[in-house]
Each structure stands twice: as C-alpha cells, then as structure tokens.
Design goal:
4 copies of one chain form a homotetramer. The first copy, chain A, has 355 residues and is of the alpha+beta class. Chain A has helices at residues 2-18, 53-62, 89-99, 136-145, 170-178, 195-203, 217-220, 241-249, 265-275; strands at residues 21-23, 34-39, 67-70, 104-112, 119-123, 149-152, 183-188, 191-192, 206-210, 231-236, 253-257, 260-262, 276-278, 283-284, 288-295, 301-304, 314-316, 320-327, 334-342, 348-353. In chain A, the strands form 2 sheets. The first copy, chain A, has a 15-stranded mixed beta sheet that branches. Chain A is elongated, with a radius of gyration of 23 Å. Chains in contact: A-B, A-D, B-C, C-D. The A-B interface holds A 1, 4-5, 7-9, 11-12, 45, 48-52, 54-55, 75-76, 79, 82-84, 86, 89, 93, 112-114, 134, 159-160, 215-216, 218-219 and B 1, 4-5, 7-9, 11-12, 45, 48-52, 54-55, 75-76, 79, 82-84, 86, 89, 93, 112-114, 134, 159-160, 215-216, 218-219. β18 (320-327) of chain A pairs antiparallel with β1 of chain D.
C-alpha cells in the first residue's frame, strides 16, 4: 500500500511547493529602517479558525507581508472533539514552512479572557502551553518569563465593551506599572478604536492593525471598501526576527487599514514624506504654476484644509502623480491636514508640500 | 472560568450564523426536472485539504450550489499526526450545518489507489470507515453494499497516466460488468478528459465536472479564464437528496466548466433550447431582417459553421440578448455548431435558431 | 482615390456593425406593465459632451437599457468653433442606428438657463432648433407645441442652488399651473435631491434618475460605490416608443441609482413584491423555523426595524436567496422598513414578508 | 443671456480641470535613458474615431503614459457632413491642454492608402493639411520636409493583406532607400505582426506597439487577456519632446502589449536586467539553496528551457518576488529563455539569473 502511494505523494508535494510569490507592497522605508508589513493576530483550526496553519503563510506571501504571528486561543477550543489540544501545533506545522519561504514567523498565542482584562496576544513565546493556566496574571507572568511582548487585542470589542470604547481597568494599570503591556490594537478586523491611540501615547505602547482573521483573508477583506487587509507597519533595523522584536519593543510601528494610517507623529510624519515627493514646476503661465506631486505608496492621501487660495482639498492617489495648479498669488507655505493619517484620538497629521 | 467565556461564545456563534446567502446561478430547468448545481469532489483538513468542513458548505451556498459531497481520502492522511483518523468526521461536522442552510449534503469518501484502478469517489455511503480496507475490491464492495454510487475521478490524471489520456483496465471492465461503476469525471479541477465522454457513452456512465478542491474555492478558480468553479448539473425530479440520488443513477447529468458543457446529446440539446430563445423580428429593411436571440443562462454560447449567407459565427453572451442581422436571401434553416457544447470526444452539438 | 478607399470602408463598417449585445438587467415587470430601463439625459460632442452620439446607443445596449434620450444643450455649445451648430444633429445620426439595434430613442434637448428656472429637458420634440429662442418661456411653449414632456433637471444643483436643496420659483408654479411641467430628477449624475420627491408628490410629477453624462458611462460610474448607472424605470404597457411616452405622462416611474429606489408608494410597493419572493419553510427544529427569501432583482434590499424577536436587520442580496431563521415565538407579521426604497423626502417603504 | 451663462461655464471648467492624475507604470529606466511610455496612433471625431481629442489626453494620463500622438486619417473622414475638415483640429484643441498636464504631445496624422503602400503615420509634422494631397509620394515628401518620422502602420492588416503577413513592395524599398521610413508597428490594436521584426532588423526601423483606438481605451482593452493598452517604450535622454524625437529617429524602442515585449536585443536585454533582480540566498539545507528573484516591473516574465536540474519553467510575476529552490548539484549558470520577450520573428531572449 505504502509503495503505491509514493508516486501520488511526490506529485502533491511538488505542486504545493510550486507556489511562492510575494507581491510587492509599496511602503517606503524610513531612513535607517526597513518597513516590515506584518499581521500579528491570526487563527487556525487549532482554535476557532477555519484553515490549516500553512494557509496563513501562503496568504501572507501573496499579500506581500514580511512577518506574521499565528495566535490561536488558549482557552477557546471549539474543535477539540476532533483535534486534540496542542497549543504549539500551529507553530510546529509552520516553522520550517515559513523559513523556507522567507517569511518571519513569530511564535504567538492569545490569552482569551472576559473584560477586564479582555484578550491579550503573547508574541515571541517559547512554549505556548505554559500559558494555559487558570489565573490570567499567572498566564501573563509565564509569557513575560519567556520574553514575550504583550499586546492588548480589540480593547473596545463590543462583545466586551458594549459602547465600543476602550477602558483601562486596574489590571491594565498594573500591567503597565510592571512594564508588561507593550502594544494595543488600533484596528482589529473591521473595527477601529480611536481611544487606543490615547492609551498608546500616555503609556508608550506600540499601535497595531491586525486582521484577527478566522476565515480566509482574501474573502474576509474582499469588499472594495477595505482595499487591503489590516497591517502593522514595523520600522526595523533589518528584515530579521530579532530586529522585528527589537522594533516592536521600541514601539516603532504604524497601524494601516482601510487606507488609514494611525500612529505617533514621530513615525507618521517621516513616513508621509517618504511616500510623497513634490516635483519641480513643469509649466507656468501668467496666473498659475503647474507641478506634480508623486505618491509612491499604496496609500492614497486625502489632504484638506489647504491654506487660502490653494486648492481646498487634494487627493494624492496611490502610486500616482497628481497635478497641482497653484495661483502665483500664494506666498504662504502649502500646508494641509492629511485626513487619513491619525496621530491622536482626534488629531490628524499636518504636512507641508514644498514645491 | 466557564461562566466568563459564555458571553464570548454566544457572540461568535451568532456572527457565524448570520452568514447565509445563496447566489442565483442562471441554469434553466429541463421540462419535468429541476437543474441542480453540484460539486461531488471536495477535500478538507480531514485528509489533505486545508479548510474546515463547514467552509465547503459556506462556499457552496455563496456559489449557488444545490448539493455537494465532501470526499476526503481514505488512504492519504498527511495531517494524522495532528488530527486523529475519523473517516466520517466531515460528515458529522456538516450534516446539520448543511441541513439548516438548505444545502443537500451527500455523504462521500474517496478510495485513493494507484492506477489501475486510480481514484474513485463513493457517494451516498452510510459509514465511510467500512471502506478503509486493504483490498480495493473489498472497498468497492463495501461501498456498493451501502448503496453507493461509484465515480471514477480524473481518469487521465497525469500523475497516473502520463499522457493525460484515460484508459480502461481490467478492473474497470469488471466494475462495469458488475454494474458497480456509475460515473466518470469529464472535468476535474482545471483538467479536461475528452476520452471520458467516449467511456461514458459506451458504458452508460454519468458525466461529472467536479472541483477536487484542496485549498479555497474562491482562490483556486479566481483566474478570469476559469469564470466559475466546475459544476455537475443534475436533472432531478425534485430538489431533494432522494431525487438527486435517483437522477445520478439514471445518468441525467451535464458537466460544466470554463464555460463548456459536456454530456450526452439527450440532455445537452434540450438544455441549450431552454437557455436560448429566439425573438420575433423587430425590424426589417430591403435587404435584411433584424431579431434578437436571448441567452437566459450564465453560459455564453459560441456558434460557428453557420449556413452560407448567415453570419459565420455568433457569440450569444451569457444573460444577454444578441442582435442578428440576417439577409433576406437566406431560406435554409439557421443551423450552427455550438463550439462549447461537447457531446462526444470530438463532437459538438448542432442546433437550429428558429426565428 | 475613391475606389481605393472602398475596401477599407467596407471593413470598418462591418466591424462596427458586429457589436450588438444587450445585457439582461433583472428588473421584474409589474402586473400589466413591462419595466423599461431608461436614461433621459445624455450629452455628446454636439454640446459639451465628449463622445459621438452613436456611443450613447452602444453604451445603452451594453448596459441593458430599453430607451434613451440624447439631450444636448441648446444654449451651451463650447465646441462650436469646430462643430457647426445643429440642434438636431445627434438625432439625425442615431435615429436609424438605434432602430436597427432595438433601442427606443427619444428625441430630446436641454433648455439650459440660470436658476430660476434652471435646466429643463424637453423630451419627445420634433425639431429641437425651434426651441433655440431667447425667452425661456417661448422655448417651453415651443416644446409643448411639439407635444414635449418637460423634465426639471438637477433641481438642487449646487452651481445654481448653493445649499443643494431644490426650490420652486414663480416660473415653476406657472409651469405647473399650465400643466407644462411633467417630471423632476430625483437623481442626477452622482447627486441626489430628496426634496424633489416632495415636489413630485405635491404636483404629480414623474420622478427620474438620469446620468447627465458628458464623458464615458463606463468610466463615470466605474467606482464600486455606484454599482450601476442611474436609470429611470418606466412601467409601460408595451416596449414601444408610444407606450413609453404614455407611461411618462402618466407618471409611472421609479428612480434607481446607487442601489436606491425612489418613487411613489403605488409603484414602489408592487415593485418590491415582484422582486422578492418568500419561500416555504424548508426546515424547523424546536425553537426555530428556517426559510429562504429570494430576491430576483439586481437591487439588494436592506430591511431594518424588524418586529421584536425577529432579526433586527436583513440584507436581501441581489439575485440571491437569503436564509431566515425565525423564532417560533413570533406571532406578529414579519414587517420591515426597506431602507433603500424611498417613498418620500423622509419616508421609506414598509413591507411584510409572508412566509 | 451671456451673463447668465457665466456662472455655469466657470463651474464646468473647474470640474474638468480637477481631473489630473497619472498612474505610475512600473517600467524601469535604462542606464542613461528614461523609459517613456507612449502611444503614437490614436483617432478622434476628426476622422473616424468616436471621442473628442481631449479624451485621448485624459486617457493617457490615467494610463500613466508620457507621450501620445493623435493621428487622424487625412483621407477617411466619415463625419465630414457634421464636422468640417480641419486636419490640424485635434492638435489645436489639445496642444495647451496636454502641456498643462505634463504630457508630451506629438503632432501627427495618418496617410491612409490602399496596400501598397498601406497606412503610414507621419509624426512630428508642423501642418498636417500640407500632406492632404493626391499622390502618396507627394504626401510623404511633404511630411519629410516638415521633419516627420514615418511609421508603417499595421503592415499585415488583414483588410489589406488577407493572410496577415506583412510584405514589402517597391514603394517601401524606395522609402527605405531614401531614408524616409523610420518605424513599423509590431503590435497594432489586438493584432501582432512577427514579420515586422525581421523588417525592423534588416532596415533599422524602430518597432512600435500602438493602440490605433477609435472608441474608448478603457473599454477597448478591458478584457483581462489584454491586461493593458499597447505601448511603445522609448528610451530617451530626457522626458522632453525633443529627446523623444531624437530617441525615435535613433530607433531606441520596444513594443509592449499583452504582457509581451518585442524589440531588438540591444534594448530588450538591458531592459530585462533592469526589471529583474536576483536576491542573495536567504536559506539553505542539505540539498537546496533558497533565494528570491524580484521583478520590479508591470510585466510578468515567463522563463522556460531551464538548464538540466533547475526548475524547467519559472514565472516571475509582475511586481513580485518569486522564490527559487535550487538543487546544490547545479553548477552551470542558471540560463533561461524568456518566452515573452521576442527579439526576432522566431527568437526569444536568453537570460541568466546570477544568484
């Protein structure tokens, strides 16, 4: 019997191995850093997801990601009648699969509790099963002992905060006091938590946009309004597992979803100026000068509140050059709010176009 | 702990249950029969597929199917280190899930052997585990005892027939002599086996087009050239499990893939005339008469070898009316070959447009 | 020279004539009427549009329309340095072209004035040049003498009403008093005028959704959010020019754009019930009954404000069947607001699903 | 009356002027040259096209082109009953419109004759009306006197060469002898003339891919199989009208259509190596080394006829990195044919991947 199956096996393996293309996602680097496109919140059949772990790798490659973490629930295992509990299973299955495909794989898991404290991803763990303990604090401690990064997931999830607004409870303050809380989701699946930005700035947390996907990425985010899957942009010193970890603990991230960027101004501002270049005037007449602004990223930028006399709004379409016709009477710098770069709960980035 | 998880569980269940829309696929019924859109060859994590069984139900609903069979391999179980062997697992997981969603679910499995005899689906089994025996003949016998329909899968699969051309071996003749072989795949995944039509006609087998999908349907058949997933059209007396079974054993099927229809003329011909209606002339001038031909199906029809004087070729786009301008000099019936309706290994359907 | 060009000419003519397919747009008929899909506001190079008139015919066929009117401006002719003024040119060029393609062509023109009275289409004219007179009232009178239908275009166009809200001036009341104003645009291009519905109901005007396109239809309405071009649905006794005219003067229309329907309840209500059919329950358990609601139209319907105990909201996707799982405790009729069927400035249609 | 229209006019002008974004088309520069994306064969309502000339500018911007020529027929003017003959009309209408939008506009026209000599574009003319003369040779001479570049259009057009194969007649040899023939279309609309490459190499002509569009670009090339409009890639010393002209007369072009590149090896080879970069190995095991090949262009490259032991075929998807798993046993250079870079009538480019 075994011998008869050999030929069959060879064929199937080869076919699967044939797959392997990583789409280029246009996200410029920052000076001194490479911009890694990441998703740190993914589920598989080993908790309540619907796909085999290797699917998450294939999806990440196709979507042009550099790094992912598979973070199956420790406590919620609805498929356990058919799949025996093994909190490290997804890691075992994908570790070499990812390495051979040049994808950085972060060993993660999700500590899944009621609010407070809610759900928390532990990233960069060694053995997820050590975190499967009754007391949530013991679980956090076990994670920290393994050197983990703790990420507060969907802090305003309506199932746990019916008004959708994140709140910090005693346990969150205790985590912060201990230096144990490192990140917070600004975007999760199709949800958005503006208040998370306030917490991130007050407590120096890295901001994230993660998919938290249970089904299939390409189907979950197929609606044109989404445009792309949620991604956490990480500014790392190199494209390595170690440099990624250093960058996350240092908080060098931006959250990216639905053509929105969220994060601290210190990263958002240079990122915008790496994306957008103002060309020299190519023409002028009596009244106006004409120049192009080139956006070299996948993100359209929506400029508004222009200075008087300038165009009130400008849309810098992704991967495009936009023509600006400017009255020669304008002498003030060409300043705009970037409507879709959020640098605070209610703040957007202010930029200048120097032509 | 359990109590704390309760609220969480409720939310997740409700969200998943919210899904439930079946796209209308325009495939007219035949007089006396309803046309069921089906896929009888699907894999899940319970053999070498990459998705949980309920995904196959959700995909089928979204694609507008009426019936599917999940047919995990009996002999090829590469995930068994993580998922214990249970040949009926997919059935147990999906039986009520499908019923509540008005999808006809056929209990199936794939008997997976080298060629000869190759791979064979057993459909309408009671307990797939009874077929997991060493001797392939014993497996067939166990299937037949359960009332199964035996379907010869991808008979010219290049891994088993390097030239891609199906061949009948002794065991196939023996199956046919016993009345144990009932169907054959004309299309499987992206492959096409014209010779299968010859076998189907000689031995009175039902023809099939099945996806044999291991990954995600929407991704596997995303290429514009595919246009849709493979489907077996079954002409049943009613939209029920029993009527479906009766129709399959009676051989009332057409295979449908890549905008091609394959099958016996006795079904292909009336199917074409149900799809295509010729309108009355709406205008004429000295030289020509003008009328519209309406195609009420999702299948474009490519007509060629028109009679002299008529348009040499006509494309009847799917779900569209096509204008025909015909010379008044033409007196012969307006006959065409339908290039994409295959009624034999090298034959296409000849039709007449009566205006 | 001429002879040499002959062969060339023949080829080009034949190639263009080969085009001719009308997409089926699923819009059910009302009892006693056929539903004609129409666009009564289109521009070409003969005023300020950018395409040759035959392009409007080809676009209409491809989009599955039954009737159009080309309505070039009488007063605004920015291309007149290159194209001599001929207010009937588009009509002359397309009349036989449309007839040979089974498209109903309405002879129209746009009387283009400042507000008040704003822009007005005259439909069903005999000679548009008779309307090119100084006094706007004389222009209206000339139109009425030809038997024209007068349609008030974009009554709240921001270039003429900066707040976007339609207002009736003396001249509009005078037109109504004379029985000379017959219709009003509820949708124009991407604009929407809710107040137009109030005027339509008070003064018994037919409501319209027209594209007012100047560029290319497929490009202008390419954004996924539009989903389709604006259409005026006309409920006519037959698919003829005469029946169309009778239906318009009788006010039997609905406006359709961006998956919204706007119009009087007497047409909106039966139209909804022709689109949506409730199936018999296909399954039940202790707690719930299961049935499907089938939407046979291209328009998704968004139901909300369900009765207590029923699903609060239901989306009936276009050309799909939607599963409803209903608690057996519900005894009241299953009533919903249809969020995207507007029967007044602030009213939506209330419907019942009888299962 | 005039005053009343003023406000209206202002609005319409502003709206049209708002448009102005140029999509980035990823086509790397060659060392010392910028790669200009061009289309030198376009029609408008001023001959047998269906759009106003400014539409060709807007289309070019949206498609990311750097330069175009509008080339209306001199001899074939089917719209002359409505539009008076003016062979320079399109140029007058678009000259400043293009300049203000940073698009290089080439003044062109099409000398439209039976075969021989067939159709010929004159590019870089000063006054097209001087070419509207009876004798074709006189027309050529008038063009050359204006400094024109003569381009042989669709040399195997089936309306003029029923077998589709280009042939050189006496007049073509005479043109070449005089140094008056400078270029030839390798692709025209959806047609492809392999033999044109032979002529191009023998007689040192620049190769072109032009759309020859009469209708709307986005509709004509909407089919997924086309993927993009035809483009002539020109390697110019700068992005200016003068540099473009110099490059064309120097023959520095490649033809690009349907994901195929056609042209002389001296441009095709460095272009490939600018598009494709081989990364350093990122992983290796006992048997294999793993590296990525990054394709920074919009063109997928199909590699085949790999050396023994290497993958037989590799697809380098556009704007993607492709993983290569290579046996350590391979010691020969990694050479491939690039199936879709045509350097001769029957030759493809041979390349080496140096890892």
């Amino acid at each position: 019997m075994k011998k008869k199956l050999m030929f069959l096996l060879v064929i199937i393996t080869v076919t699967i191995a044939g797959f392997g293309q990583r789409k280029t996602v246009n996200m410029p680097d920052l000076p001194g850093y490479v911009t890694l496109k990441c998703d740190f919140h993914l589920h598989t059949v080993f908790s309540d997801g619907n796909v085999w772990p290797t699917v998450r790798i294939d999806e990440a490659l196709r979507d042009g990601l550099d790094a992912i973490a598979i973070t199956d629930h420790l406590e919620y295992l609805p498929k356990k009648d058919f799949i025996p509990v093994d909190h490290n299973a997804a890691w075992k299955i994908t570790e070499s699969y990812a390495r051979e495909r040049n994808l950085i794989l972060v060993h993660g898991t999700e500590i899944t509790r009621s609010m407070p404290p809610g759900h928390m991803n532990a990233l960069f763990v060694q053995d997820a099963s050590m975190l499967a303990v009754d007391s949530v604090w013991d679980a956090y401690e076990a994670a920290i002992k393994q050197g983990a990064f703790l990420l507060w997931n969907h802090p305003g999830w309506k199932s746990q905060q019916p008004d959708g607004i994140p709140r910090m409870y005693d346990i969150h303050y205790k985590l912060i006091k201990n230096g144990w809380l490192h990140g917070i989701e600004f975007y999760n699946d199709s949800d958005h938590y503006p208040r998370a930005m306030t917490f991130a700035k007050e407590h120096n947390l890295a901001v994230f946009a993660n998919s938290d996907v249970h089904s299939v990425i390409s189907e979950r985010f197929a609606a044109p309004a989404f445009n792309h899957r949620p991604m956490t942009l990480v500014f790392a010193k190199a494209r390595t597992h170690e440099a990624l970890k250093e960058a996350l603990f240092a908080g060098r991230t931006l959250a990216y979803f639905r053509d929105m960027i969220g994060g601290k101004e210190e990263y958002a501002k240079p990122f915008f100026y790496q994306c957008v270049k103002v060309g020299k005037p190519y023409y002028q007449n009596d009244k106006s000068i004409f120049f192009e602004v080139t956006n070299n990223s996948n993100i359209p930028f929506y400029l508004e509140n222009g200075v008087p006399g300038a165009p009130a709004t400008i849309t810098l379409a992704a991967n495009s050059s936009t023509r600006i016709v400017l009255s020669k009477k304008i002498t003030t710098p060409l300043a705009y709010d970037v409507k879709n770069i959020l640098t605070g709960e209610k703040e957007v980035l202010r930029v200048e176009l120097k032509y």
